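Revision sheet: structure tokens.
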Amino acid sequence: MRIGVLSDTHIHHVSKDFRELLDRHFSQVDVLFHVGDFTSPVVVEFLSSRNFHGVHGNMDPFAIKAVLPEKKIVEIGGFRFGLIHGWGSPRGLEERVLAQFNEVDVIVYGHSHKAMNEVAQGVLLFNPGTATGFSSSGVHTIGILECGDTVKGEIIDLD
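Predicted:
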């Protein structure tokens, strides 16, 4: 089972480049996660045509917050994934998102625009970074989660 992961796209329409990014990197995924800051309901509608799970972010308008929760637990391949965007300063973000879930194997989050693929307190913390939003490092990234005997994360550099 392969899961494509996006966050912090911050786009207002579904561009040709965005479609090509999805086709190139996520054509072989079974499920797609987007963990907030879409910024346009058009993007949510577009992704909803796929096997998609999402949560809203702090920059999302009411139209998105009305249809996507702040956090969500998804069970796939015998694993529990906690989805949340995150909030506040990037400093301490991992501790804050960890405190939001009990009994999950993976927490998928965004907000910081910085990729993360590390285990803390027995939980895989996975942040795909930003594919199309502002990046202070100039690096744009997405993620893939592979479910087998364990869950393994991969960050894909788009630049």
